[in-house]
Amino acid sequence: MTLFTRRQAIATLGAATAVGLAAPALAQNRKITLGALRFTSHAGSFVGFERDYFKEAGLDVELRFFEAAQPMAVAIASGDVDYAITAISGGLVSLAQKGAVKVIGGGLQEEQGIDGQKFLVSDAAYQAGITAPGMLDGKSFGMTQAGSSFHYMGSKMAAAEGIDLKFKPLQKVGAVIGALKSGQIDAWSIVPHIAKPLAGSGAVHIIGDVATYLPDYQVTTVFTSTKNATDEQEMTKNFLAGYSKGVADYNAAMIAKEGGDAGVDEMVDLIHKYVYTDRPRDKAAPSIINGTMRLNEGAKLNVASVRDQLEWFQSEGLVDADITLETLIDTSYVETAGS
């Protein structure tokens, strides 16, 4: 495995911007492609699709699945995908600098009182006495790519604890999980619907919460091409309307539990079509429920958290120092928090 130090830069992904952006579609039933990961945190997209909220907004949506954030950013820039929900990555920031993509809303955010992302260690590391994040000095930390959300979370924790981590890029979430379970890496951080079942297996142990270090972390964002954000405002508003209805349904069922156990069961059935599809429903349900985190109502965006992420990318030398927040985000579509 290749070892990455904190200051090694990612590729700029500049070639992706050479490809034309998405072409306009028909006014009604416009065909668009929505990028997603098979995570519970993408439930807003799944609910919007399954309950025809996108259709009601005049959009004919095709879901396209990815295994990491940065390839999704490239797909937005190339026009293969119109909208996506995932973590901000160094690649996304670099593409924003080139005028290819814009963040237009919030997806998932850490929130006090609601279980969030976890720091995990391998069983070997745990048996060696590592029972808290601050004890990981000099240990290996898994990530998909340099500049990924995993890199950000690990680095921010390490800075707060005054320790050094050895980051190992493994490209795909599945590869990181395999490396952690086998002890090839010492630690990782991930959403609870993945963290808790791994910990339950005994091969991995939870040693801390990401929210301890990043209490208002804007974990995922909604983004699109700059062309869609500037030239396709009606389509973009329609997309956000359909997505936000899906988010509202998810929060009502899983956070507020407005429909009681029956409402939770119905939502689990829907999400299971996309998450843990290789497991029977009864095996998948606990993990889906464990993954419950509040999604941003109305795609509200925590600008202060996005600013912190941008400043971290810059401090690590992962993106150019002169990129401004305005280059990365378009705040005209949704409510914002922070500054």
Short description:
This protein has helices at residues 43-50, 53-56, 69-78, 90-97, 123-127, 149-161, 173-182, 192-201, 226-231, 233-254, 260-271, 281-290, 303-315, 325-328; strands at residues 30-36, 59-65, 83-86, 101-109, 118-122, 140-143, 166-169, 187-190, 204-209, 218-225, 301-302, 336-337. It has 339 residues and is of the alpha/beta class. The protein has 2 domains: 14-111 and 218-337, Periplasmic binding protein-like II (D-Maltodextrin-Binding Protein, domain 2), CATH 3.40.190.10; 118-212, 3-Layer(aba) Sandwich (D-Maltodextrin-Binding Protein, domain 2), CATH 3.40.190.
Could you describe the 3D structure shown?
The protein has helices spanning 43-50, 53-56, 69-78, 90-97, 123-127, 149-161, 173-182, 192-201, 226-231, 233-254, 260-271, 281-290, 303-315, 325-328, and strands spanning 30-36, 59-65, 83-86, 101-109, 118-122, 140-143, 166-169, 187-190, 204-209, 218-225, 301-302, 336-337. 40% of the residues lie in helices and 18% in strands. Strand 6, helix 6 and strand 7 form a beta-alpha-beta unit. The chain has two domains: 14-111 and 218-337, Periplasmic binding protein-like II (D-Maltodextrin-Binding Protein, domain 2, 3-Layer(aba) Sandwich); 118-212, Periplasmic binding protein-like II (D-Maltodextrin-Binding Protein, domain 2), CATH 3.40.190.10. A five-stranded mixed sheet has the order 2-1-3-10-4, sandwiched between helices. It is an alpha/beta fold and 339 residues long. Its main location: periplasm. This is ABC transporter substrate-binding protein. It is found in: Periplasm. InterPro entries: SsuA/THI5 (IPR015168), TAT_signal (IPR006311). It comes from Sulfitobacter faviae.
